Amino acid sequence: MSRTLFAIARFELRYHLHRISTWVYFAMLFAVAFLIMCTIAGAFASVNAAVAGSGGNVFVNSPRSLLAQVMSVSFFGFIVTAALLGNAVYRDFETGAYPLFFTAPLSKLDYLAGRFSGALAANAVILLSIPLGLLAATAMPFLDAERIGPIRLAAYFQPYLVGVLPNLVLTGAVFFVLAALTRQMLANYVGGVLLLVAYLVAGSAQDIEDQLFAALVDPFGMSAMDHVTRYWTAAEQNTLLLPMTGVVLWNRLIWGAVALLVLGVGLWRFQFAHAARERGRQARTEAPEIEVEPRSVALPAATPQYGGRAWLQQYLAIVRSSFRGIILNRYFVAILGAGLIFLVMAADQVGKLFGTTTWPVTYSVIELLGGMFSIFVLVIITFYGGELIWRERDSRIDQLVDATPVPNAVRYLAKLSALIGVVVMLQAVLLVAGIVTQTAKGYYTFEFGQYAQTLFGFNLADFVLLCILITLIHVLVNNKYMGHLIAVLYFVGTIFAVQLGLDHSLYLFGGDAGLVYSDMNRYGPYVEPFVWFKAYWAAWALLLAFASNLLWIRGRETGAGWRLRLARSRCSPPVLTGSLLACTLILGLGGFVFYNTSVRNEHTSAIEAERRRAEYERLYKRFEGAAQPRIASVSLEVDVYPEERDVYARGEYRLENRSGEAIDSLHLLLPRQVEIESIDFGRPAEAVLEDEERGYYIHRLAEPLSPGESLDFRFGLAYLTEGFESAISNLRVVENGTFITSEMMPHFGYSPDAELQDDEIRRKHDLAPRGEMPGADDVEARRNNPLSGDADWIEFDATISTAEDQIAVAPGYLQREWVEDGRRHFHYVMDSPMLAFYSILSARYEVRRDEWNGVAIEIYHHPSHGYNVERMIEGVKKSLDYYTAEFGPYQHRQVRILEFPRYQSFAQSFPNTIPYSEAIGFIARIEVPEEDIDYPFYVTAHEVAHQWWGHQTVGGAVQGATFIIETLSQYSALMVMEREYGRDQIKRFLRYELESYLTGRAFERRKERPLLEVENQSYIHYNKGSLVMYALRDYIGEDRLNAALRSFLEETRFQQPPYTSALELYEHLQAATPDSLRYMLADLFEEITLYENRTHEARSEALPDGRYRVRLELEGGKVRADSLGNETRIPMNDLVDIGVYGPATGGATDGPLLFLEKRRIRDGRQTVEVVVTAEPARAGIDPLNKLIDRQPTDNVATVRAADRP
Amino acid sequence: MELRIRKLSKTYANGVVALDDVSLTIPRGMFGLLGPNGAGKSTLMRTLATLQEADSGTVHLDELDVLREKDRVRRSLGYLPQEFGVYPKVSAEDLLDHFAILKGITARKQRHDLVHALLHQTNLFDARRKSLGGYSGGMKQRFGIAVALLGDPKLIIVDEPTAGLDPAERVRFLNLLGELGENSVVILSTHIVEDVAELCSRMAIIKDGRILLEAEPLTAIARLDGRIWKKIIDRASLPEHEARYRVISSRMLVGRTVVHVYDETQPDPSFVPVEPDLKDVYFATMSGVAEGVAVPAEEFAL
């Protein structure tokens, strides 16, 4: 390194360290880091925030959590880098000082490398504020001490070293070189956008098959870090630093090389000479100088016009000129180009689930493309909003323009219109992209109305408001870079505002009540609040526009004092009237919105909702054990008014005292905000507590209900929709697609389900941590089942009325259907016992009917969603085939699947009724059933299985309850799918299950439990459940396993309390398992067991008889984890598959299995030899991934021919 | 038609006094504002062009209050700033047309004719389709004048237009300025004495924000008649001469130094009389040696 270089670098560093802006940046990043740490460490009562890798058992300052925090804050640092590194050379061009440097006796390398390293060092100092801010915050006394672990300096600074600094070198190189080569700062924005695109592309890789690629593509390494740490348990997150190996190391090396390459190109291309940019220009325009004396030309008369029509023309002229200025700008073209590339990539991702795409229906295309593209629109609005405001000044033509008799308002409106015009153009691009995407994917149902409404209505409204805000910021701040920074801070602020309790859309600029499209219900209930909220914000925007206009910079007075004085002088009567009008509108519309959202409805902040639940527990927990009657029969009359979104429910329960004691008080639970029209117990009773706030009512019976006695409880309730809400809470009752459940009906007895669940939140409200669920041996707890706490098997009938063009469905069989007073009525009666768990749906359905051995199959679907109805019917039939043969008879004569809007995405099984979300399966597109996982089929099989597991046998509400209900349903559906699609599909499916289980346990906030003790943890009862049951099936055989399940079912079918438990199921499984595999049963169900099997090497040798001997160098490993993820290696002597594949044909990864046999495998390295009949291609241990292994891909290795001795 | 400036003062936020109690009366015709760099010329020009606020004082264009009725002033204003840029990718014709609209000339035909006439007048017609990014300095200045002349302005303000022009361009530009209306108030600010000498019927000299002299150039020159003496000396003896005589200027001439000295009578025989010119007026005023000729601006204004 030459001396000059060092001197230049040192000068540059000192230059920056002496600038106040450097320390402002430092302070800002420090503050952001400090605030984030305080926020997640519980400093603000109203905020519950978490970043990846914190919360629950993970300390906020755990290495993993700090990594996430440092990396996310460093994102803001890019703005600083753009300014600092971009300016390192650019400022010589801006100030015109470059000839002084270029003529000095220094080399290009010294100059560039010196400037770069100096600015880089200064930037590195600034970014040091991030770990320091986090460190300082951790030491604050006001944090929740229980969330903070021991302070390890390495954990704070390692992310800085391996994450932030390499990213700084990369981004710095890009910004530095772009600005140096183009000699324009705007080029930096493009560079920044391109880096952002790469990051987003990496982040958008949903499919596990793409994740490794994504980890390498992400220039900032965050995907790689996530990839490496994604399975880390709480214990690992608390202790492990990011390992600099594997994909993280590769990522850093690759992008480090890219940075060097960029710098190299910069060095090579940089012209140590007069501005290269001007060279071209001069060549192009050597102006013809004609030596002619100016002629005195009598100027023709021209009469200037002022006012109205002239303003219109001036407005149009400025709009035209500004619009062209933007769209002809090459950086705009570059950003747009990046956006288009991104659109193309995004289009490929439209709606993936389990690697299967959905049909590109318009809403999904708009959401996906629009969502991705909106980043570019925001970037363009932000940058070009600033550019437009600064256009004249940047071209130094401002004095000429300022001296013309054009009112400020005309110029402001014209610029704003041009910006909006650009946005409109971008939306049109999006429209075209959407249509092209749909066409390319073979979908030709173009819904132009929906495109227009969404792109040029709802979305445009938001963008227009943003345009007004951004232009105001730039007018107000009057410093372009500061303006950009403030705009970015505004975007960041909007993200945090909600968490800081500013969650009413009346306080968040441009806020609304959300917007979700459903094919069934269109924008439904969202439209009204959207329109009112936007009208309110439009009034604000009007005021902002007046403010922009008054504070408009014209001329040379930019000091605050003069600007205010000038603004005062510009307060003409029209401006005053307009502003007053805007204020009036703000008050009027704001008042109207407030009246609707907070008076007619309730606006509950998150903290208030928590407080209410905490109070509920404090006040009524003491009643938890109080004896209450059980609901024995339910008879409902429900009137659904879809148009008004109102529901009136009248009902009659027969309540039986099945406890051994007399009951004198009835603890009635009702939903909040329900209107009680009547309550009658059929005998004298007195209301002694009516707590509407928490929905808790106590009625004392004049004469207690003695054991064995029953009474008839009658009620009339009205669920009314009035006005609109700030966040739409009632999506249950909508114009098309009403879906209400038994939860909304009256219940009896304190319900622990309503308690706060999260221990951190409980601590905040001074509640003791929530204990464990009762164990499987708790017979008292097993008197309740998890689906209904106040009923066992009930009789049920329901009469539902709805709009004449809708079909309403409830459990049971349709007795009668009639139209009366323009409303359609349905009467359903259930003829067999069922759980008190029911649903009522109403929508304009198309019905597809079929039949299986006397069981009616009905699919109620939205008319345009017929894509997978046949698959569902097939799924129902195949399920009925398998379940009736293997487990026992079906208790109903009908299976109905009903679509409901995508406000929620799940399917749920009620007695003979399966509501199924529009979002999962109805628009799935299974083109190649061998490759695409047929999840409509699978989900159907799962839900039908619940008619057995859940609706025939249901465990008590204790640990392991969902093992019975969910895991067995997963297993049943897997078997049905395997029969239909074969083992290869199941293998792919299980890879997703493994992924979900391993990431799920990384996010566990309490304790990971073995399957037998699962406490409603979905990653265990679904994902691990699938893996465990599939492995068990493999080891003991399908017949044995199914026989065990059948005997369990027979024992527990329609069982009265106390209900069965997972332990009883486990006894059946144990009985079916040979002693030699008992160890396996314990590993799968009683413990958390992970395997670390791998194949180091596979060699084959052709035998004289034409067969091949395959010699495998294997490593076995088995680990037991505790509930926090602390691992212990345990000895292994297990039966594990050894498999050999033949050569792959076609596009498949693996060829046919030539060999698959279980061998005893010890822990550690060992050699296994097998003989196969055909040429082997790949071989290894547990090739089908039946065992849970965090590195499933290293189980199999490519077979190489053995060296001949 | 008359521009009246009364007691105009301006101090910038950083404490620099740009205008200190400036009063001037500027009639129809070409008025030169002469002063060194940093004298406050541009501040005064910008204030007259409605782009800068004054701390105190008044400016009237006939009945029009220039400091308050800015929009009205802009309707009759032609302003060529000292430094200005253009949109580099736009052609001269298009940009001039754009400015014509901004100036209120909305009738298409009229505008077209006017733009063409102005392009002819400024001798840019042949280059009108070229993008402005490729214009030379002089062409850009002429384009600026074309902009300033749009809409028949009554008040034309031209701030340091010849700085940075080569001699040929400068001549061409001054010729163009010379065409400017006898019907308008034209203020030309410059630090080049010849500009004023060649064009202006009236002038003022400004230094440190104060008006040192307001006069007709010929009268001011006449006042110095017989009072300026010249001597060619060695460079080394300049300090001695400066101590002994009222030296108003010194310049190099083929390696020797020429000094001009102000005195009512011949200081000594080694001095020869010179015919005074506007430069001598300027230097005499600037150096303050010729107290007698520097008529207080106040007095002149009244």
Structural overview:
The complex is a heterodimer of chains A (1205) and B (302). Chain A has 1205 residues and is of the alpha+beta class. The two termini of chain A are 54 Å apart. The model of chain A is unreliable at 276-288 (pLDDT under 50). With 302 residues, chain B is α/β, with parallel strands linked by helices. Chain B contains eleven helices and 14 strands. In chain B, α3 (92-102) crosses α4 and α5 runs parallel beside α6. Chain B is globular and about 70 Å long. The interface between A and B is large, with 54 and 60 residues.
Short structural description:
The complex is a heterodimer of chains A (about 1200) and B (about 300). By secondary structure, chain A is of the alpha+beta class. Chain A has 34 helices and 30 strands.
Blueprint of the fold:
The complex is a heterodimer of chains A (1205) and B (302).
Chain A (H helix, E strand, L loop, with lengths): L2 H15 L2 H21 L22 H33 L2 H5 L5 H20 L1 H10 L14 H30 L3 H18 L7 H7 L4 H8 L4 H6 L6 H24 L6 H9 L23 H20 L2 H19 L3 E2 L2 E2 L4 H28 L1 H4 L3 H5 L5 H33 L7 H30 L2 H20 L27 H24 L9 H11 L2 H28 L5 H15 L9 E12 L4 E11 L6 E7 L5 E6 L4 E7 L4 E10 L4 E10 L18 E4 L5 E2 L10 H6 L26 E13 L3 E3 L3 E8 L2 E13 L3 E5 L2 E7 L2 E7 L7 H18 L7 E7 L12 E5 L17 H11 L15 H21 L1 H20 L15 H19 L1 H15 L9 H11 L5 H9 L1 E4 L2 E9 L5 E9 L1 E4 L5 E3 L3 E9 L11 E10 L1 E9 L5 E4 L14 E6 L4
Helix pairs in contact in A: 1-5, 2-3, 2-5, 2-6, 3-5, 3-7, 5-7, 6-7, 7-8, 7-12, 8-9, 8-15, 9-10, 9-12, 10-12, 14-19, 15-16, 15-19, 16-19, 16-20, 16-21, 19-20, 19-22, 20-21, 20-22, 22-24, 27-28, 27-29, 28-29, 29-30, 29-31, 30-31, 31-32, 32-33
Chain B lengths: L1 E10 L5 E11 L1 E6 L6 H8 L7 E6 L2 E2 L4 H6 L1 E4 L11 H11 L5 H14 L15 H13 L5 E5 L7 H12 L6 E6 L2 H7 L2 E6 L2 E6 L1 H7 L4 E6 L4 H7 L2 E7 L2 E7 L9 E2 L4 H10 L9 H5 L1
Parallel strand pairs in B: 3-8, 3-9, 6-7, 7-8
Antiparallel strand pairs in B: 1-2, 1-4, 4-5, 9-10, 11-13, 11-14, 12-13
